[in-house]
Design a protein that fits this description.
The structure holds three protein chains of three kinds. By secondary structure, chain A is mostly helical. Helix content of chain A is about 65%, strand content about 0%. In chain A, strand 1 and strand 2 form a beta hairpin. The longest helix of chain C is centred in the C-terminal third of the chain and has 32 residues. In chain C, about 75% of the residues lie in helices and about 0% in strands. Chain C is mostly helical. Classes of the chains: A mainly alpha, B mainly alpha, C mainly alpha.
Chain lengths: ~475, ~120, ~200
């Protein structure tokens, strides 16, 4: 009898687990909390090294290799170096907020980890415990809430620096994060529809048979796109577009405060990857072919391995995207968020809700699937046709716009290089008048002609300078 | 869940917050001991492409940021109502009626989104 | 067999909840409720007294976060996190964007102090008195059992929302639509004026 009960306890999923989350002794809880922090920091150091190695490999370089075996300790050395650097608080900054901002950016990222199930039930110092700090019935909502608090770190960093670039970068970054948080939340709703719960451990428990990534492919893809946008990573790394905004919201930060922003970015990456693992890829459960041949794969410390591998998979995806895709323009990015992701996720959510309702009412499954597939194909065809007609219209309009009518202000007005008292570049259609230059002496080497920015076409350069000579 | 379970769960969330605060304060203290401190006027100037900054760093922003934040508020409220709906949806006694209710709700919001789209608000200029 | 299973469930219940003292007893929760209430009150006063406008917004974040903690202590966890997500994550961000749209300088702004301070205090006291009267009158007989923590869960909230409060829920969607259209019309009017000015 007791043996049978033990078997029952071993085979039932987490929802019916005999060990609750509140039954750990306090020292074990504290230990687990510190362990989670250590895990985050180690994962950050590892992810930076891995990112540099993988991107180097994709670009046929070697990457870091001097510090530690294969350069593994490079990011640790960089982190220590940052802590030794002088901390500069610029004079224009709002000091309390300036110091608060990196803290607000980092602590919520860590806090989200409290509800991530990293593994099943294990034995730790003779106590049976879960590899999850705590289990809230509204766990996923809690993660969304902490993410929305993390946005403050960025807004405040940009504002408190008292500098233009950080302010613009922080506004961009915030608008970006809030836009993609909506799509992220809507993709979660699909998961809740299937799991009937917002608790992370229950959601993992519900994926014993089929992963939600298989059941909800559209939600999964939307989440993947939204999570890259949410973490401000390439190709959505517009807040730190170096060519436009210097460094974005953390331009004025140095030393440890800068390191904290860096840490927050990578911890956030790990958090969203863990969330993707938990919600869509079956959490810490072993993937299907392994469970078919090996019964013990879902027990004890092995679960941590599966969790870790799945998170690494997503981190690799982040790095891969960074290594291959160019950065989007801001208007493209916003169009993707508001015109593609949000409408798609709304339609998808109502679609699966309808299918579920019809299934619950007892309709034939095949009929539903065929009907909906037909409807989708019809809508797709209609949208493609619509796009073709609209697209040509747009192009015509654009072509019209590109050719300014005669007498338009842009073409007719001569270019005024000091319009409004500032030096300004010419508008399209306007000609830059030749710039008067000092006469070049023949004896000077080619390198002195910096005005053209290139030392190649020396003959052209000379004719150009000759022409300006005459004008002067 | 019993009361003890509930409160100790949230006590744990508070504990994580405390450990996070501890981590940050230890890091700041260590940084204070380790780093050099030699400020001068040039270092304390805000960065502006290498030239001395003119006036204040603060710039008036464009209204489109505000509009997007506004849209976010509305759709965040929408998502918040979708969550409990999705949670109870499959329970006995809900089903089609609840579905229709949500269709009406999402329909109104979709009209709003379509309006914004037609007015060109969703196009970043 | 059944007896064994029943025993197992009882043991499970023991382990997950009642076994051993919790970290925060209900009485502790009540003490914490009062303390957080004081924090909320203090930060709310700072919102209206500070002369730095962005700091006022940040104190508002503290106030709203404190309220979320109060909801948590009343076992309304769903509402608590919604409070964080909507009010802190969306509404105050909207407020900050609004500030940056108009003016958000670093440092003190002297024009924030209104000359009509005493009438404002009077209005605030009056509003507080009205609210207190109404709330006490409406809820003086209501009793919340902190030992039963299901009342604030997402499931219970959803059930009451989609069984009892369907009409307000649908009206809310119309309200959101009206707000959205209003905002768009206002902002477009402004953009058009800009276009004409240019």
């Amino acid at each position: 009898m007791s043996q049978r009960l033990a078997e029952l306890a071993a085979t039932t999923d987490l929802a019916a687990d005999p060990v609750g989350f509140a039954s750990d002794p306090w020292w074990l809880i504290l230990f687990k909390a510190v362990l989670v922090f250590a895990f985050c920091v180690v994962m950050t150091l590892f992810a930076i090294w891995w990112e540099r190695k993988v991107v180097a490999w994709m670009q046929m370089r070697i990457g870091p290799k001097h510090v530690g075996p294969q350069g593994l300790l490079q990011s640790l050395a960089d982190g220590v170096k940052l802590a030794f650097k002088e901390d500069i608080i610029v004079k224009a900054a709002d000091k309390p907020v300036y110091i608060l901002a990196p803290v607000v950016s980092m602590v919520p990222a860590f806090m989200a980890f409290a509800v991530i199930p990293m593994g099943g039930q294990v034995s730790m110092f003779g106590h049976q415990t879960h590899l999850q700090l705590t289990d809230l019935p509204v766990g996923v909502l809690y993660i969304l809430a902490t993410a929305s608090v993390g946005i403050y770190g960025i807004v405040l960093a940009g504002w408190s620096s008292g500098s233009t670039y950080p302010l613009l970068g922080s506004l961009r970054s915030t608008a970006q994060m809030i836009s993609y948080e909506v799509a992220m939340g809507l993709s979660f709703a699909g998961v809740f529809l299937y799991s009937g719960s917002m608790s992370t451990s229950t959601i993992v428990g519900q994926q014993g048979d089929t992963w939600f990534a298989v059941l909800l492919p559209v939600s999964f893809i939307i989440y993947i796109v939204a999570m890259v946008g949410e973490t401000n990573r390439a190709p959505f790394d517009l807040p730190e577009a170096e060519g436009e905004l210097v460094g974005g919201f953390h331009t004025e930060y140095s030393s440890l405060k800068f390191a904290l922003f860096f840490l927050a970015e990578y911890v956030n990456m790990v958090v969203v990857s863990s969330l993707a693992t938990t919600l869509f890829l079956g959490g810490y459960r072993a993937p299907w072919p392994i469970t078919a041949v090996w019964d013990g794969a879902n027990s004890g410390w092995w679960t941590l391995l599966w969790y870790f591998l799945k998170v690494q998979l997503f981190l690799f995806l982040f790095i891969w995207l960074r290594g291959t895709l160019p950065r989007l323009r801001y208007d493209q990015f916003m169009r993707l968020g508001w015109k593609v992701l949000i409408p798609t996720s709304l339609v998808w959510l109502m679609l699966i809700a309808t299918v579920r309702a019809m299934k619950n009412e007892g309709y034939d499954y095949r009929g539903i699937v065929l009907g909906i597939a037909g409807a989708i194909i019809a809508i797709l065809v209609l949208s493609v046709v619509w796009d073709m007609f609209r697209g040509t219209d747009d192009e015509e309009e654009k072509a019209k716009a590109a050719q300014p009518p005669p007498g338009a202000p842009g073409a007719a007005e001569p270019f005024d290089p000091m319009a409004g008292g500032f030096p300004v570049p010419p508008l399209p259609g306007q000609e830059l008048p030749p710039v008067p230059r000092r006469a070049v002496r023949r004896a000077e080497p080619v390198g002195a002609m910096v005005g053209n920015g290139n030392g190649t076409g020396s003959a052209d350069d000379e004719s150009a300078t000759d022409a300006t000579d005459k004008e002067v | 869940m019993t009361a003890h379970g509930y409160f100790s769960t949230y006590a744990l969330v508070g504990l994580v917050l405390l450990v996070g605060g501890g981590f940050v304060s230890v890091a700041f203290a260590a940084n204070r001991l380790l780093r050099p401190h030699a400020p001068n006027v040039e270092k304390l100037m805000t960065y502006e492409c290498g030239v001395d900054p003119v006036g204040e760093g603060w710039a008036q922003t464009h209204i489109r940021y505000y509009i997007y934040a506004y849209l976010y508020v509305i759709f965040a409220v929408d998502a918040i109502f979708l969550f409990p709906w999705a949670t109870v949806f499959a329970d006995p006694g809900f089903g089609t009626t609840t579905l229709v209710e949500m269709f009406v709700f999402v329909g109104f919001l979709a009209v709003g989104l379509l309006y914004a789209w037609r007015k060109g608000v969703l196009t970043w200029t | 067999m059944t007896a064994g299973l029943a025993a197992a469930t009882v043991a499970a219940a023991d382990l997950s909840g009642r076994g051993g003292p919790g970290f925060l007893s209900p009485t502790g929760a009540e003490v914490a409720f009062v303390l957080i209430g004081l924090v909320v009150l203090g930060s709310a006063l700072l919102v209206v007294t500070t002369s730095q406008i962005v700091h006022a917004a940040l104190w508002l974040v503290v106030t709203l976060g404190g309220l979320a903690a109060e909801y948590l202590l009343l076992t309304a966890e769903f509402i608590a996190w919604v409070q964080v997500l909507i009010y802190i994550g969306a509404v105050v961000v909207l407020l900050l964007f609004g500030l940056m749209l108009t003016r958000a300088p670093i440092g003190r702004s002297t024009e924030l102090d209104s000359l009509k301070r005493w009438p404002a205090v009077l209005v605030a006291v009056g509003a507080t008195a009205t609210l207190l009267t109404v709330v006490v009158d409406a809820f003086h007989s209501a009793y919340l059992d902190l030992g039963k923590t299901d009342d604030g869960s997402a499931r219970v909230t959803g059930e009451s929302l989609f069984r009892v409060w369907v009409l307000p829920f649908e009206v809310l969607s119309v309200l959101l639509l009206a707000a959205l259209i209003g905002a768009i019309v206002l902002s477009r009017g402004r953009a058009d004026a800009d276009g004409k000015g240019r």
